[in-house]
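We examine the record.
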Amino acid sequence: MKHTLGIATILALLISSSFAAEPASPPAAAARSASARVFDEVADTALAAMSKRAEELKISGAAVVAYIEGDNTKGWSSKMVVVGKMANAPTEKNRGVNLLAIAYTKAAEMADTLKDSGNAGRPTMAGETGYKGGAIKKCKTGYLIAAFSGGPAESDFKVSQAGLEVLATKL
């Protein structure tokens, strides 16, 4: 014997089963630590220091600061700012440069190696650039990261250090 259900019956079954089920509770939001809240408060000041240093060095680009809580990277809080320009536009002779992408890959490399960017001590992994210029520092509750992209590596590092110094005073 063949059973067929009409569209109205199927819809009624679907609607009743969706309302009969217990509503899924949203996952509990992870409590933000005091250190993460301090990072949020000081990140803008660190980015302002990086912007100022970049302007002094007459370079433009993208700056990123991040805070990793604990001894292992399982997540981070971060902020970024554009200092003048986020990218160098493509031309007939080159494909252009996404400075923000480079700053974040410097930060990602540091999050993995816990060393300044371009100093991993291992071959560059896919997704990394291997560019120097980002700085990382161990603090009492984790790691602080500052990365800048837009100038020569030495200048990028000076800009990154300016942000790291500000972060280190509070964390």
Notes: Residues 9-29 have pLDDT under 50 and may be disordered.
